[in-house]
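Entry 12.
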Amino acid sequence: MELESQVAKIQLGAEKDAGVFVYLSAEKLPLEDSESFLVAEILENDEERHASCEQIVLSINAAIRRTFKKNTGSGAFEASIAQVNSELGKLASMGEVNWIDKLNCIIGVKIGAAFNIATTGKVAAYLLRGQELTDISCSANKASHPLKTFENFAAGKLKLGDILILSTNQLFNHISVDRLKSLLNQGDFLKATGRIVELLKANAAGKIAVGSILALEVEKGSAPEEQIDLEEYIESAAPLGPSFPSKVWQFIISAVVPGKRSNASGTNLTERASLNTRFGRISRRIKAYGLKIKNLFYALRKSVKYGKDNFSPSQVRQFSPQKKFFFFSALILLFALLLQVTTAVYLKSRNNAQNKVLSVIAEARKNLSDADAALLYKDEPAAKEFYLKSMNLVNSIERPSKNLIAQIDEIKKQGEEIKIKLEKTIEVGAENLGTLAESDFLIKLPEYLAAESGNPASPNASQGGTIVSFNKDDKTIRDDVLKSPEKFALAEAVGKNKAAVYADGALKIWDYIQGSLGPEFISSVPKAENAAGLKFYPANSRVYMLDKSKNQILNFAVLGESLGRSLIAVNLKNDDGRNAVDLAIDGSIYILTPGDIKKYHSGAPESFGPLALLTPLSSPKKIITKADLTNIYILDSGNRRIVVLNKKGGLVYTLINSGFTDLRDFEVDEKNRMIYVLNGASLLKVVMP
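Predicted 3D structure (tokens):
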């Protein structure tokens, strides 16, 4: 009985992602009743070597065709293998060596009922006859030489119903031998091969490349004329009857060509190409076109080099008029071709870049919409996350085209609106109460807010500076009410007419009505470069200071006209004190650092925050809270704002004003809903919301 092969090809996975190049071929040969099969895999493939890998396998295929075109005898297959080895040797001598010891390949030729096979590397070549699966590969177990890539070959007779399984080695990593035998012996070859594809897609998950050829031996004349390519089509159930569109198509065909039937009724495998598969098909076609363009440029470059080496102006001048005409016409056509190809590549690149930007813009818009929706449901953490994603996407766009700039600006404007909602930004009015002295801190007294001119670190610090004061009752500003014989760097009211003051490593009590200073206290008092913050806690009548060098908070007893009895209030953790800017106390102690707030209670760190600020703190100057204050207030100088937090670290609101240009210090009067701000030398009054 004469036999022929019903062939199904399976090629799954993207070579670029899988790190391999896979090639399958099954075709008729010039010799009557002969067919060739080629399954090739080259490991460690990358995009730059794609063309080289393709050249290797096409050379193998071409060598087989040429041999069988010239030879018809029994030694034709052996001659074809010799020709293949010769071709591979030539490629290696030309520098194409990346395939050596990385080529896994099956060459099979069927002539009538005789099947010849040669293999190299790790492959899966089997003959399924009934329930018996026989390994027919014949690879040598040693490193190959380019001229002896295919050393051995085998031959045998095929019978009706035999199935050849020629595959890359990955096949049996994802389908067991027993499962494969069970599927192929069920009697429906098309359905079985479709089911194999389903299993490969499910188990391999697109991470590897698999290439397989399945060939069922049937009676001559009973196999379809075309191969079944299962790369994009699978059959998950028995084919249904023809669909309505198929019936319409059949009717049209019957009307136009009486007696002719369309194959839409479904003897072939049912097409169920997924969206991902279609995109994959388009991607492969684009890559193929790109490769052709690349090869065209390569050929043009070689032609230009040849012309440069072999042509000179003197030779051209010797051409006949006809040759000159054809020569210059060829140059013009070449230039036109180059211009057309270059323009096409440029336009494609520009369109791809614009499509990518449009995709980013759409994603950014969606994230902003999600942020807005999260705010409606009071889900501020989610809204913050969506906002940040949107802004990161917009900021990632480089050099957008002019027609997209307006869309990007619109998204940024919407983002700014959401940012205002997230940071609870309120623009408040600010009344200028007058000008005080140039100073980095406010002297905060029950009746007065004042600033002292001059630098307490100057050589004349002992002379005292001019203190310009604002009277909270009559709203007057004077420079003759408060006096001090010395300049000081920090001051804190500690009782009636009394304030603790610090200057140059010493603490004193200042009677601001009399203008006199008590005795200095220096024991354990930090030096000027290590001192930060000076706050009074009336519950124990002690003033607290930070010593940066020791990473400690110290407190000192207020003893009438003097200070004394220093104690270590807190030994700070993680260098919290070394970076401290200021402190506040309400029973717990809050330490302001350049970017955060640390909380301590009973001498130990306590959870606080994290601060829910989209815009982090920048050069913060002061922090205020007390036992009788509801909130915590931060003067965020770098961002020109006042941040108000609750005592768990949650954001209450953020206050801004165009007049906040040089924030230095502030005082909070929650009872009367006012904040006094020292902005440069000016004293501003802000009414709280």
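Annotation: The chain has three domains: 3-238, 317-422, 439-640. The first helix runs from residue 15 to 18.
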